[in-house]
Amino acid sequence: MSAQHPGLFRMCVDAHVPWDLQSSAKGLHILQRHDALDTVPNGPARADTIRLLQDLQDEETGFFRDPIFEEHFSARQDPAALLKLRRNNAKWANIALRVLGAEPRRAFFRTGTGGDPDPEAVLKMIRDGDWSQPWGIGSHAAQGVRDLFFLACEGRDDLVPYVERGLTMILAHQNPHTGMIGDSSLPLFQQISGALKVIGNFQFSLGLKVPYLRQLADACVTHHADGSFYAESDSHCIPRNVAEMAWVCLLHSDYRAEELRSTLVDIARQYQDVFGKPDGGYSPTPEGTQAYSWNGTYLSESSSTPRSSISGTNGSGCLGMICAALGWEVGFPSMHDGWQERVANLRYEVTLSSGGSARLQLRQSL
Questions:
Q1: Residues 6+ apart with CB under 8 A from 137
Q2: Which pLDDT does position 315 carry in this prediction?
Q3: pLDDT tens, position by position, 308-324
Q4: Which residues, including other chains, have CB under 8 Å from residue 158's CB and lie 6 or more apart?
Q5: Of 54, 328, 338, 344, which sits 20 to 30 A from 20 (CA to CA)?
Q6: Which pLDDT tens digit goes with each residue over 218-233?
Q7: Is 361 in contact with 348 (CB distance < 8 Å)?
Q8: Cα–Cα distance between 351 and 66 in angstroms, integer?
Q9: What is the Cα–Cα distance from 257 to 265, expressed in whole angstroms?
């Protein structure tokens, strides 16, 4: 954590950049999960950090600059790439501010300007996105529709038709044979990660049960057991993503329940053994010696000894998620704690027709 700006974090101990928005958001999230925010000094120092973050917001777009990182950003001379970076960093700045008990000065959305979303742009993103890379487009599409959904729950009923169309369009990319997102010809790590970005988002943010969960359970059990999920990527995200999808399956059915639980136990053991590092944190890859980067920009050199990173350690939240799924009371917090209560208080709930069309209806319990 930065001594000059408490609450801001670097990616790893040997990072060139003393802090960046993504590392800071993930570092604060780790502290929040473990009830350790008191390690960030309160009072004037924290207030200064909040003001610094708020000052990074662009008045026109609502997105966020990451000034020190941008000095190293490989595509800093490309206006479109820089805008995309700042759009992505708005997510991280928002997380950091909320953990610190603050808000951005202006509302922002992944699409639209002037603090107002562009629902047509959300639908265009879903329609024209590269669904051969479901890990990426699944994340952007699900977040875009989720933003509209939450606004509808706050009274923007004009957005309801866009939410319904967006959900229907996204779920059209769910493969009925695998339960995952994308064509069966795509790499399995892309399919399961697209599933995480779509199905996990919809389950724990919207309370939406998607179809084809038996097929998804089959995929989780089979491709974890034979290692094929991990054949083309050694990222720590892949076992974490498998774990969340296995939990979603367990939430709704006893189908292959014992095998899914065994899968979760195996992932927990492997995550600790493979990604855990001697410094007490976790690395995003097994070696822990590689040069670390965000957005294609290297922010550290390779290391002669293994070390953890903010990203790898944040991903270890899957261990708490596994504990929650298995009912283990070991004091390890789940990244989805409280999701049922949050969903129960949403104004709208989502239903799916037998043909896969999404509809929003007012929640009866409110």
A1: 125, 126, 129, 130, 131, 194
A2: 77
A3: 999 888 877 888 899 98
A4: none
A5: 338
A6: 999 999 999 999 999 9
A7: yes
A8: 40
A9: 12
Tokens representing 81 are 């790439």
127-154 core/surface letters (b: 16 or more CB in 10 A; e: else): eebebeebbbbbbbbbbbbbbbbbbbbe
Distance CA 311, CA 277 (A): 13
36 contacts 28 by C-beta, under 8 angstroms: no
Per the listing, tokens 């920009």 go with 297
pLDDT tens track for 254-299: 999 999 999 999 999 999 999 999 998 889 889 989 888 877 788 8
Mean pLDDT within 347-364: 93
Q: What is the DSSP string of 4-43?
A: SSTT---SSTT-SSS--HHHHHHHHHHHHHTT-GGGS--T
Mean pLDDT of 57-68: 89
Return the DSSP state at 174: B
Q: pTM of whole model > 0.85?
A: yes
Nearest to 129 by CA among 140, 118, 113: 140
- Residue 289 — φ and ψ, nearest 5°? -110, -5
Least confident of 166-170, 223-227, 300-304: 300-304
* pLDDT, average across residues 60-83: 88
Closest CA to 95 of 48, 152, 32, 3: 32
